[in-house]
Amino acid sequence: MSKFNTLDEFERYVIEEKGTERPFSGQYNDFFVQGHYCCKRCNAPLYRSEHKFSSHCGWPSFDDEIEGAVARVPDADGRRVEIVCANCQGHLGHVFEGELLTEKNIRHCVNSVSMTFISADIQSPDILSE
Hints:
5% of the residues lie in helices and 31% in strands. The chain is mainly beta and 130 residues long. The protein has one domain: Beta Complex (Metal Binding Protein, Guanine Nucleotide Exchange Factor, Chain A). The protein has a six-stranded antiparallel beta sheet, with no helix packed on it. β7 (91-97) and β8 form a beta hairpin. The longest helix has 7 residues, at 9-15. It is globular and about 40 Å long. The mean pLDDT is 91.
């Protein structure tokens, strides 16, 4: 079994119990620095900063992910599609299509608390330079 990072109570609620943070409350909502975002639970690379955009929805939004990093799961409510870390299945948020917010026409709506940010100034794993 893989060893995961220690999570606080709120991080466990969001990542393991599929909760959500309040809109406009997360540290990465209006955060636009060069680097990449990794899963808070297992450190797997998820998103590059060049895929982040301002959607004004209250959560960090991305129009692409690192290939193979994010899995889609039909949500229990039958209306949405949940996104999880493909490595550890930790809850990230939901994905929406057809909103016409970017050319790719997709929005990964991600809880800030589900991610950690690694600045471009820090050496990146090989997967991020592909």
